């Protein structure tokens, strides 16, 4: 058993906590994974006979199966890409290459056996016994992984499938590489080789890392340090070596094709920014370089991309240099053939990436190439290029090295491209959505596609802007070679430059609106957590009042009939053999339907209308078998059927309840019980032998017991229905819908308690737990409730409602329905915010459904649409399937320009955007509706004035925009303005000039603070103080300027005036206010905390009278001041920062770290009180642009009364103490979700920072440490085999090293020396739990869960309950 976690010093190795009494106890988890695509490669990774697309997404590799066959081409979008596998990587992937498996296996087989130290020599690191031991236990992948490729026995003959399966080479930003291979037999990712290319000396590359693979796979070249190349031979057992090159700033490098010796072409820049091309031959035997066959100086000064060209007719391979104004081909070894295509001069065409296209063996492109002016018989090669604007170009080079370039289409700006075959191309983007496109022969009508332009030819210019190239029609003289069609978009949220969290409709669940994308790919994304519905069919049908799905017999699996009720009629639809719905005639079609259901004990259907209750056959077309008519004085207003007792309960407007049943012979309907209520029934439901009725006038609910059924004759008089309990509800609260249920996890589970759900007209939902007491056993302990499993016993004398909980679902009355989804019961609340309610470990969990205005719903299970739902909305009928899990759903609103900042006030959003007009940036202020996102108003800033910051001041209902005039002669802008706009039509209210660029804005007193802080200096004398919302702070260049709101009584004009300034920063980038505290994030000097000192009230009155004149109070203390409280003594390049508490702060730096700092406000000594202490550190691996307080899940209120359920904190303490005997069937919520911080990153990830208590932190720390060495199952869709894979990550990468914060980063790149790595590993992750790793516990096999729990000395159920509760904070 694990010892109780009472103090941090009792934590085991690998765990982390804060320092002192106020520890850093936080949980960081990713709610949405990174969506950026940095590398795309094609290979046969999972199987030798299948092609796969491998995508690098920051810290993982996604594998997709490619089905680009001829059938797929004919079927359009169907089945081109199918997700197969996700490989988590403990590092930022900066290079990804596919190596043919036969080449790797052959070279490995030819390598001789070496000593164990050769592995470290090949990777460039030192070796010790401990390191090799960790390698053996870190990944249970393969023999080559356990012993190292160098010392493994030579593989003389490899299997055919092994030779055909490709391997994967990846390099992380920490300069660790791995060569991976998938073993289909064991469903395992093996590590063929791994190592590090770090060096003790050397300057990191300012432009990032470059990797080039020899076309013959003889070696790999890495450029990670300036003027140094790392050469890794293709024989993985060989030793890697470093060589120096005469190149300063490398822009691109590539291996030439068709050379006898590996020849590397390098494009670099000198001190004067001139570009030069060098070539080197790699001498693997001599472990050295020699000058290559050619070198060229002073090439295009804007060149930044190289790509190799295969050999032409009688000439060796060449290279193409792509610049902003030209494409230059250098070909041949002796004659140095040079070809140039000059691009337009009026607008730059910067090529960003390229992918080769096949010239033969591809039916689609071969057919398209028939119209080539080059001609197929002369075609040497062709390439697809993409520029920074997203335009796609086709470059064709014939065998005589003559080039032809044409713009063929438009896509999102590409960061990488991969050709998949049969014309399919994957376009991976970091600026917008990634896309799957298809290259096709141009159709006769090009209206649906972007037409091509007149081609560029060798040594000819064609002046044409990018905008013109997007829209220009094809010239009649030359037909386009190819056309581009976009087949599918893959969502990319990044780069998230800003976002807001709103709760439109006050439903208790936030949604995130992000500023995503770059340039014309810019858009707003609405991110909402909920359950989606996959639509199968829909039809317009208004006025639906009820939906009922019927079976022929209760034992049938599928439904056959669907009743759709309207205000004055009912339509009966039948499912045909062709899986279509056809309308059938029925005798009761002229009335609305209140209830229709198949009886659970006989093949009959009970059909209730306002006038009668009919017992019908399965077809509903024949005459009723029996009928019960409503009383003449009252029509039936509500009806419900208890499936456990087959009792039918009706309500009439006079307050009468009647219990009916069908006789045993099935020839009559008998009234067996009756009850009189004091008011008209507003809602009714029966289940488990109980009846619950909500009434209109007295705003209450009553629980009654049903009378026992049986017998063939009608009783002489109906029996009374005993009243068990009356619950008075809140005044003016009308129970519009009630439901009795047991939300058990499985269908055969009979141990779940009964719950009563009450939905009110204002959108609120109350839940109660039912406790029963029998009349003959008042004093007995009723722990054994077997007689209540299926229905309530007839001896039940009373019912008590306990454990009240409530949640707001929407603003309209919800209607509750009990459904069964994937074998689990749930409650669907149909309202303006549809919600699914489920029970997880005894706790109700609310999940929003991404639909609007659902009025009715019913489950329709058919052969064609199993487990489907028919949903009625205000506009029609929808047939769809509900997704089994809750997840993030994203809606896109394209802008066509780049959004920079966003702010929200009730009813509208304000946006700062950037557009390109004639090659010049123009900045705009846009006002959008917060529901439809339609533009209401717009304000264009003057030319050369850049919008930098945006603030919504809620107390004053205005937007404040900070802008600066950018001049080429100024290093930093010296002239700026603050614009004050009203939210109605963006009416300009005021302007205020500032001396610099206002990079950040913050308003005091604009948000409620739990514990408002009043300064000690201000409280002396017991003065009253002016409100905080009079002040506004602006970060202007290197100062923080405090401004005061003013109001001119005569003219009614509002404005701002500077009050004071605080200096001492380099550049103020971020500001956040909390009470009187102001958190300042500096470009280089980390963060500092300022405090607003307010003047006394009498001085405020003087200032208020003289505010409009030039006179100022003579006493400087008569105005507010900013005082420095504490600052971080260490240097840190801050990107974003936020308050966690008044004394705890969170920041993200440019080394992708999250740092937690604490202010020691109670410290006596000034030098310690003014110093911020770093109490938490965590390497996130991504750049956070903004933090916002909020939540994406629905907030459920705490129970109103004490319950016997254990809290989650108690479960955590029990788990930490090793208590496996406690009851873990129930759990309540953690700390409310609004205490969390959401953040958005450049890669498109969404994360959350949540505060946890000591018990949770200690237990989750132990779980995190245990999971670092736990085996989990890895399987590929379509495979039945499961095999262990280490959570520690592929390639032997360690989780502890990945999450250890980087502390040695320069402005130009990461200085990953051995000393920096050692220092980071020593400091390590502390104070913050990696939620991504912890929640992978839920993906383990049950036996693996038991093993982890055994290591921790607790039970798997307790761990599962705690981890699921943490996961529900964001999903």
From TrEMBL:
Domain named RSE1/DDB1/CPSF1 C-terminal: residues: 923-1007, 1121-1339
Keyword Nucleus: yes
Residue span(s) of domain RSE1/DDB1/CPSF1 second beta-propeller: 533-878
Biased composition (Low complexity): 118-129
Keywords: Nucleus
Transmembrane segments: none
Region (Disordered): 106-157
Domain RSE1/DDB1/CPSF1 first beta-propeller: 36-441
Domain of life the protein comes from: Eukaryota
Protein name: DNA damage-binding protein 1
